[in-house]
Amino acid sequence: MSTSVDRVRPTHWASFVPVLALVLLAFSWGREMPGPVVALLAVFLGGAVLAAVHHAEVVAHRVGEPFGSLVLAVAVTIIEVALIVTLMADGGEKSASLARDTVFAAVMITLNGIVGISLLVGSLKRRVAVFNPEGSVAAFGAVATLAGLSLALPTFTTSTPKAEFTPTQLVFAAIAAVFVYGLFVVTQTVRHRDYFLPVTQQGEVIDEDEHADPPPAKVALISLALLAVSLVAVVGLAKGVSPTIEKGVEAAGLPASVVGVIIALLVLLPESIAAVRAAKRDRVQTSLNLGLGSAMASIGLTIPAVALASVWMEGPLLLGLGATHMVLLALTVAVGTLTFVPGRATPLQGGVHLSLFAAYLVLAVSP
Q1: Phi then psi for 214, rounded to 5 degrees?
Q2: Are 85 and 311 in contact (CB under 8 A)?
Q3: CATH number at residue 22
Q4: Quick one: pLDDT at residue 353?
Q5: Total tally of structural domains belonging to the chain
Q6: Distance between CA atoms of 113 and 360, rounded to whole angstroms?
Q7: Could you tell me which residue ranges the Sodium/calcium exchanger membrane region domain spans (predicted)?
Q8: pLDDT tens across 303-351, in order?
Q9: Would residue 1 count as lying in a domain?
Q10: For residues 303 and 87, what is the distance between their CA atoms, to the nearest angstrom?
Q11: Would you say residue 233 lies in a domain?
């Protein structure tokens, strides 16, 4: 079994892959690449994403839970926000709905995909998945509020003819997102940290800091530096691969919103794996921290970022959801409330969330 020190040695894949990805980015930046080179970029993009989350896990191990889940969520969301902004900067009017599509995809992946598979894995192992309802309900309520203010409300405002905010409304949405996310972070890490710690089948809180052997500060700092390198590589390589993704989606006759789904799936895949691993270790609350924290960070950081970027980017910024996605969001909020309030879940709850996630994927391809 490898230690945290082993995971940051030069011979470990997570140490040299980000550096190689950065070198590849330097040679490919601003150039039109042939198919084989684009495929190579995609391989290193995936490697850089995995390396980013790997080093985030090392840092998370150093700072403990629930700080660890917060580090992972923020790291993944920084990737997502950077991808959205860079793609919007180059896409013109055709990328007007990219932020909405990607954020909503992240919400559905986290609230139904990650939560569903985590509850299913946890409950199949122990018959019932047990988690802390105080922390989970609080986080879910905050996510539902931000999703409603940022994604549902623009559809019903009357100041603009399309599903977009006026500048004043957009500023309010951005401030509200930062405010609620800031309150959530303080609640999770300072005032009510115990609400977000894993619990046993008997409901006893497990403070993982008491049992974990964290890596030395030097190892954590090296991982933090490699995490930054990985993030830069991910953003740059995704910018190089995105034209091929867009052409592929267009050639297949799929809706343009599928691009946002692909981006969100790519960015959140490593975090999904981390959540499943935690559920297998009977740390379902850690899995929920990852899912709900990512949903919260996705809205709380993306909306302010695109609001700020819209100052210098031309074209509309469509944030309002259509009728189909509004129904999916409403179902997710209703089902999620019933799931999180008891603090215990069976495979049925996990299967229901996964069914909603499957419905979202089917409707994304065939609206």
Answers
A1: -70, 155
A2: no
A3: 1.20.1420.30
A4: 96
A5: 1
A6: 10
A7: 38-189, 223-364
A8: 888 888 877 777 778 889 999 999 999 999 999 999 999 999 999 999 9
A9: no
A10: 15
A11: yes
